[in-house]
Specification:
The complex is a heterodimer of chains A (309) and B (469).
Chain A: H1 2-46, E1 49-54, E2 57-63, H2 67-74, H3 77-108, H4 117-125, H5 132-142, H6 148-155, H7 169-197, H8 201-209, H9 214-242, H10 246-251, H11 265-271, H12 278-303, H13 305-308
Antiparallel strand pairs in A: 1-2
Chain B: H1 2-27, H2 29-33, E1 60-65, H3 69-77, E2 81-85, E3 88-91, E4 94-100, H4 107-115, E5 128-134, H5 138-142, H6 160-163, H7 168-173, E6 175-176, E7 179-180, E8 189-195, H8 196-203, H9 208-214, H10 218-230, E9 234-236, H11 239-247, E10 255-256, E11 259-260, H12 264-278, H13 290-293, E12 302-307, H14 309-315, E13 330-333, E14 339-340, E15 344-348, H15 355-367, H16 369-379, H17 386-393, H18 409-418, H19 428-443, H20 449-463
Helix pairs in contact in B: 11-12, 16-17, 17-18, 19-20
C-alpha cells in the first residue's frame, strides 16, 4: 500500500516537471518563432518575387521564380563581394588569432609571473567597447587625404606628398582588416584564456618534468586540448566576418570603393534598401545563409576530422 | 592593482553607457515627434481641400522638413506666428508642429514615402499639411501619379498674378504635366567665388572683371588652372565643385525612355576633370569633407568654389576669424556657365485638413514682396521675387561682408533669369550621387573610363531596378 502510494507520488512529480519544462521553453519558442523562424521563411518566400519601389510607385510583387537568383549569380556580384568579404576577414583574422594565442599563453603561464595582468586584460578589451561605426569614423578622419597621418608622414619627410589611402585597394582592405583585428583580439584572447585555464595543470608539470620546452608544451599539449575552443572562435569569427558591414560601410562612405573592391556582402544587401527591393534582398540573404552554412560545415568537418570517423 | 583595474573598467562602462544614452536621445526627436500629436482636440471630418472655411479646418498643422531653415523663416516672417518651443508654434488657434528628419542616408525621403501615400486616411491631427522638397528629388513628389502634393492653383487658390514675380525656373522644378505643385521663397543661382589674395598673386588683380576674363569659359578656366598651379594653388578644391555647373547646362535628361543617358556636357565634366586631376590642378575629395573645406582658409590654397548665396553666407566658416570669409577675402564673378544649386520648395500635402492656412503660408512667404524683402535683409537669402531682388541689387547696403563689400546680387539676378531646369527627372539625385562616386575611381586612376561607367550603371540600376542602359 505504502509502496504503491510512493510510486504514485513519483509519477505525479515527473508529470509536473514536464509541465514546467514546457512553460520555461515557451518564451524562447515564441520569440524564436516571431523573430527568427517567420522572418527566415518570409525572406525565402520574398526572394521569388519582383517587388520594389520606384519613387512612390510600388512595382510588384510579381512571381518570377528564380530570376533574382539568376541575376545575382550571372552578374558576378555574389562571387566578387564574397571574395572581398573573405579577403578582409582573413587580413584581420590572422593577426587576431596569432596575438590572441600569444597573449593568452603568456597570461595563463604562471611561471612568467606577469605583473599588472588585470590592467592589460582591460586595455586589450577596450577597443571592443567603442562602437564599430565610431571607430571607423575615427580611422576615416585619421587617414583622410589631409588627415593627421598624412600630415605626420609628410612632415617627417617619409612621403613627399599625401598618400590617398582611400583610393588604394590594399590600403582600404588593410585598414578594414586592421580595425577588425584591433576590435576583436581582446575578446578572442579572453575566450582562449578561459580554454587554457581549463587545462589540467598537472599535464604541464608532467611535461616539464619530462624535459619538454615551453615551445613543445604549447604545440603538443596546449593547442590540441584547446581545439574545441579554437573551432568555436574560428566559426564565430567566420560568421561575424561574413556579416562584416559597419566598418567598411563607414570607412568608404557606403561605396565600397575603390571600384567596389571593399564592398562586403551585407553592404551589397544594404544597397537594395534604397529601392526597397525585397526580391533581390531576399535572394541575396538566402545565398548568404547557404554560404554561412557551408563554411561552418567545412570548418567543423576539418576540425573534428578524427572524431567524425 | 585590482582596484585600479576595476575602477577603470567600471568608469569605462559608465562612460560607454552614457555615450549610448546620448546617441539614442540625439537620434530620436524626429522619430518621437511624429506620433505625439494628441494635445489638440481631434477634428473628426477631414475637410475637402478647396472651399472649406477656416473654422472647420484641422487644429494641427504638420510640417515635414529636414532642417531648421523653413522653421526659422516661418517664425521670423509669418504674420501672427507664435513660437511655443523648439518644434511647435501657434498660428491663431492652430498648433504648428514641425517634424524634422535629416536628409542623411535618405531618411527624410523614407519618412515622406511612408507618410504621404497614407495621408488621406491618417488621423486628423497626424495628417501632413506641408512638406518641403529639394530640386534633386522634387519631381518624385510633384508628379501626377500618385499625386501626393496639392495643385497650387486649382487646390490652393494661388493665382498667376500672385506668382508673377517668381523666377520661372523655380516654377519649372515643381511643375509636372503642366500642373504647379509647389512654390519656393528662394532662388539659388550660383556664381564663381574666388580667393582675392590668390587672384592678386597670380593674375595681378582681384577685380571681378579681370578674373571673369580668366574663367569666361571652360577652355579659359582650364588654362587658368595651370597658371594657378605654378603658384601652388589648386583651381577648385575638388572636381565635384564644378559638377553642378556642367550638370545644370545639359541638353538631355538622366533617363530617356527607361534607359540611362549620360549627357555630352556631363562627359565634358569627366574629360575636363580627369585632365585637371592628372595634372595635379585639383583633387577628388568629396563635397562637405574636411579635405574639401580646407580651402576656406588661406593655407588651403584653393582658388575658387562654385556656389549660391547660401554657400557664401553660411557654409564658408565666416564665424571663424582665421577663415578667408571672416576677413572678407572672397570675390564673386559669373564664371564659365550659370547654374543653380539647392533651394527649398514648399508643397501642400494631398489629404491636408488645413488647405486655407497652407495656401496663406505659401502666399505670404513666396508672393508678398514686403515679407520677402525682410527675408533678404534678415537672412541674406536670395528670394524668389524679381522686383525685390532687382531693387536690392542696386542698393549698396546689401553688400556681402564675406565678399569684401561686393554686392553680388545683380549677378545672381542675371543668373536666375538664365537658369533652365527643363532637363530634370525623378532619377537626378541617385544618378548624380552614383556618377560622382563612380567617376572618382576613374580620376584616381583605379579604373578605366569604361569600368567606371559600368560601376555607375550598376549603382543606378541597384537604386532604380526598372532602368537599363
Amino acid at each position: 500500500m505504502s509502496d504503491k502510494k510512493y510510486k504514485h507520488q513519483t509519477n505525479s512529480k515527473v508529470v509536473s516537471y514536464n509541465k514546467w519544462g514546457i512553460i520555461f521553453l515557451t518564451p524562447f519558442m515564441v520569440v524564436w518563432l516571431i523573430f527568427q523562424f517567420i522572418p527566415l521563411v518570409t525572406t525565402i518566400y520574398n526572394s521569388f518575387f519582383e517587388n520594389y519601389k520606384s519613387g512612390l510607385t510600388q512595382i510588384g510583387p510579381n512571381f518570377i521564380g528564380l530570376q533574382n537568383y539568376v541575376t545575382i549569380v550571372t552578374n558576378g556580384d555574389l562571387i566578387n563581394y564574397s571574395k572581398n568579404t573573405m579577403i578582409m576577414w582573413i587580413i584581420g583574422f590572422i593577426p587576431q588569432i596569432f596575438f590572441s594565442l600569444l597573449l593568452a599563453a603568456w597570461f595563463t603561464d604562471p611561471s612568467l609571473r606577469l605583473k599588472g595582468q588585470r590592467f592589460f586584460k582591460t586595455v586589450i578589451y577596450l577597443p571592443n567597447l567603442i562602437m564599430a561605426s565610431a571607430f571607423s569614423m575615427l580611422f576615416f578622419t585619421l587617414f583622410a587625404d589631409s588627415g593627421p597621418i598624412n600630415s605626420i608622414l609628410v612632415s617627417m619627410g617619409i612621403l613627399s606628398q599625401p598618400f590617398k589611402f582611400m583610393a588604394n585597394v590594399t590600403a582600404v582592405r588593410s585598414l578594414v582588416g586592421f580595425m577588425n583585428f584591433i576590435m576583436w583580439f581582446g575578446n578572442t584572447t579572453i575566450l582562449l584564456m578561459a580554454g587554457m585555464m581549463g587545462i589540467d595543470q598537472s599535464l604541464f608539470e608532467a611535461a616539464e618534468i619530462d624535459g619538454a620546452t615551453a615551445n613543445e608544451i604549447f604545440w603538443k599539449i596546449t593547442l590540441p586540448i584547446l581545439r574545441p575552443i579554437l573551432v568555436y572562435v574560428l566559426i564565430t569569427s567566420l560568421i561575424g566576418g561574413l556579416q562584416m558591414f559597419d566598418v567598411p560601410q563607414i570607412l568608404t562612405n557606403g561605396t565600397g570603393d575603390p571600384t567596389r573592391t571593399s564592398m562586403t556582402l551585407i553592404m551589397y544587401l544594404n544597397k537594395h534598401l534604397y529601392s526597397k527591393n525585397f526580391g533581390m534582398g531576399g535572394a541575396l540573404s538566402v545565398f548568404l545563409f547557404i554560404i554561412t552554412g557551408i563554411l561552418s560545415l567545412i570548418v567543423f568537418r576539418i576540425s573534428y576530422a578524427g572524431e567524425v570517423k | 592593482m585590482k582596484k585600479v583595474a576595476s575602477v577603470l573598467l567600471s568608469t569605462l562602462m559608465a562612460a560607454s553607457l552614457a555615450a549610448c544614452g546620448q546617441s539614442t536621445s540625439a537620434g530620436t526627436p524626429a522619430a518621437t515627434a511624429a506620433p505625439a500629436a494628441t494635445e489638440a482636440p481631434a477634428a473628426t471630418a477631414a475637410a475637402e481641400p478647396t472651399a472649406a472655411p477656416a473654422s472647420e479646418e484641422g487644429k494641427v498643422l504638420n510640417i515635414y522638413c529636414w532642417n531648421e531653415e523653413f522653421k526659422s523663416r516661418l517664425e521670423d516672417h509669418y504674420p501672427g506666428y507664435e513660437k511655443v518651443d523648439a518644434t511647435t508654434g501657434k498660428i491663431g488657434d492652430v498648433t504648428v508642429k514641425f517634424t524634422i528628419t535629416p536628409s542623411t542616408d535618405n531618411a527624410y525621403q523614407n519618412k515622406l514615402d511612408e507618410a504621404l501615400p497614407a495621408n488621406a486616411s491618417a488621423a486628423a491631427d497626424d495628417k501632413v499639411d506641408i512638406f518641403l522638397v529639394e530640386a534633386d528629388y522634387a519631381l518624385k513628389y510633384t508628379g501626377a501619379n500618385p499625386a501626393v502634393a496639392l495643385d497650387v492653383k486649382a487646390d490652393l487658390g494661388l493665382t498667376d498674378a500672385d506668382l508673377a514675380n517668381q523666377y520661372q525656373y523655380t516654377k519649372d522644378v515643381v511643375t509636372a504635366d503642366g500642373v504647379l505643385r509647389g512654390v519656393s521663397w528662394q532662388g539659388c543661382p550660383g556664381v564663381l567665388i574666388y580667393n582675392r589674395a590668390a587672384a592678386k598673386e597670380v593674375f595681378g588683380d582681384d577685380a571681378p572683371e579681370t578674373v571673369q576674363e580668366k574663367v569666361k569659359d571652360w577652355a579659359a578656366f582650364n588654362a587658368a588652372a595651370k597658371e594657378l598651379n605654378a603658384k601652388g594653388y589648386t583651381i577648385t578644391s575638388t572636381v565635384n565643385d564644378a559638377y553642378r555647373v556642367y550638370s545644370n547646362n545639359v541638353t538631355s535628361k538622366w533617363v530617356e525612355d527607361g534607359k540611362i543617358n549620360i549627357d555630352p556636357n556631363i562627359m565634358k565634366w569627366v574629360e575636363d576633370s580627369k585632365a585637371l586631376v592628372d595634372a595635379g590642378y585639383t583633387t577628388t575629395a568629396e563635397l562637405w569633407s574636411d579635405d574639401w573645406n580646407k580651402g576656406f582658409y588661406p593655407e588651403g590654397k584653393v582658388f575658387c568654389y562654385f556656389g549660391p548665396a547660401w554657400l557664401i553666407n553660411f557654409s564658408m566658416k565666416s564665424d571663424d576669424a582665421a577663415s578667408i570669409a571672416a576677413q572678407g577675402g572672397w570675390g564673386a564673378t559669373e564664371g564659365p556657365q550659370g547654374f543653380n544649386w539647392g533651394g527649398t520648395w514648399i508643397c501642400g500635402a494631398q489629404g491636408s485638413d488645413n488647405p486655407t492656412l497652407v495656401a496663406d503660408i505659401m502666399k505670404q512667404l513666396t508672393c508678398t514682396e514686403s515679407i520677402m524683402s525682410d527675408i533678404v535683409k534678415k537672412d541674406s537669402d536670395f528670394v524668389n521675387n524679381k522686383p525685390a531682388m532687382e531693387a536690392a541689387a542696386k542698393d549698396d547696403s546689401y553688400a556681402f561682408p564675406v565678399l569684401g563689400g561686393q554686392n553680388p546680387l545683380a549677378m545672381f539676378c542675371a543668373g536666375a533669369e538664365k537658369i533652365s531646369m527643363a532637363n530634370i527627372s525623378i532619377y537626378d539625385q541617385g544618378c548624380t550621387e552614383e556618377f560622382q562616386k563612380a567617376m572618382k575611381n576613374y580620376f584616381d586612376g583605379n579604373a578605366t573610363l569604361d569600368e567606371s561607367l559600368d560601376l555607375f550603371y550598376k549603382g543606378v540600376e541597384e537604386k532604380y531596378p526598372e532602368l537599363t542602359h
